[in-house]
Structures are given as structure tokens and as C-alpha cells.
Structure prediction request, 206 residues.
Amino acid sequence: MKVLILNGSPRVNGNTTVAINELAKIFEQENIETETLQIGNKDIRGCIACGSCGKTGKCAFDDAVNEIASKFEATDGLILASPVYYASANATLIACLDRLFYSTHFDKTMKVGASVVVARRGGCSATFDELNKYFTICGMPVASSQYWNSLHGREKGDAELDAEGLQTMRTLARNMSFLMKSIALGKEKFGLPQKEEWTPTHFIKK
Ligand SMILES: Cc1cc2nc3c(=O)[nH]c(=O)nc-3n(C[C@H](O)[C@H](O)[C@H](O)COP(=O)(O)O)c2cc1C
Prediction:
């Protein structure tokens, strides 16, 4: 069982890493493998709506996004961790996620998602909601914790002092582990939910 963690911070060993390390400790205790990819310092452009992924199932820009796609397909859980920038997620992470979720056509149903946000002070809830929307458009259950998943700090390492935030991370990792293990059992017993063919309506009158 494996969790893929995308770190949206451009700062190596910043406060987002503090959050991720706290999660990873618990996943290790739960015998769940983790792989973390730092995204915020990569050169990842946004989607240009060329539509080529509709035919190929992968992004026309063959960069980190397509590499992440194959790791995402193989994982049981995905964590999106981002610093808060102007009450939103890091822009490079968003560019990556738009392309990742739009270009990939593999079934994401019942892969467990969780978002983690890190800020000096404000904008956590808005960013948390923003990130969770990637999960809730594609059948991914969202793991939650004892509070909305935020950690506070400004300079690198400040977040080590946010005891409640760190506890929230540990609780999240335990809850996510339970959910992933329960879903694995459920899949064995019941299989995945039945799927209907998509009925797209684009609100265009013809
Ligand atoms: C461009 C920019 C915008 C920011 N906007 C916010 C903000 O809206 N709210 C906030 O509380 N902190 C804001 N911060 C502070 C970061 O969220 C904070 O320093 C965080 O710990 C960074 O995480 P990192 O160390 O993982 O990069 C901003 C920082 C930068 C560089």
C-alpha cells in the first residue's frame, strides 16, 4: 500500500516539509510506503487546452506531470501539500494538478485523497477547499482529521512549534491509513461501485 505526496513548496525543507515529515512518521508505523515529490521548485507550465490528452491520455508537454501520472496510477492515496500564497495554493502546484487530473484517464475511484496547507497566518481554509476539489471531481474519498489540515509557520522550521497542527497531521495520517486499508478490504469483498457512462451536458443550447 502506497501514498504519493506532492509538496507544492519551492522551499526545500520548508514548513510544508515539516507537515509531510509528521505524516510520513505515522504512515511508516502503519506499514504504508510513502513517496514525496517536490513540485513547487519545478518548471511546470499551465494547461494550454490543446485537447491532445483527450486522444492520448497524457499531456502534450512531456515533463514532470507525465512522470507523476504513472506514479499516481500506481498509488492507493494522494496527498497534496502546499504553502498558502495569497490565500491560494502555490501556482506551480496548481499548474501541475490541472494538467495531471485533466490529462489522465485512468480510474481514480476510491484512491484516497488528502490536502495539507501551510501558512504564516491566513488563507488556509480557502486553499484547503481549492485542493480538495481535485479529489471530489473524480470519485476519490477525502480523508480528514481533527481539524482542517493546516500547519502554521513563516520562516523555515517555524511550523515545528505548532503542536496542534502537528497533531492534526498525525491524526490525518492515521485516519487516511484506516480509510485506505478499509477500502482495500471493501474492494475485495464488494468490488468498485458500478459506473455509468458519462452524460456530458455543457449548458449549450443547440
Ligand atoms: C508569495 C507568497 C505569498 C504568501 N501568502 C501568504 C498568505 O496568503 N497567507 C499566509 O498566511 N502566508 C502567506 N505566505 C507565507 C507562507 O505561506 C509561509 O511562509 C509558509 O510557511 C511557507 O511554506 P514553505 O516553508 O513550505 O514554503 C506567503 C509566502 C509567499 C512567498
Summary: The mean pLDDT is 97.
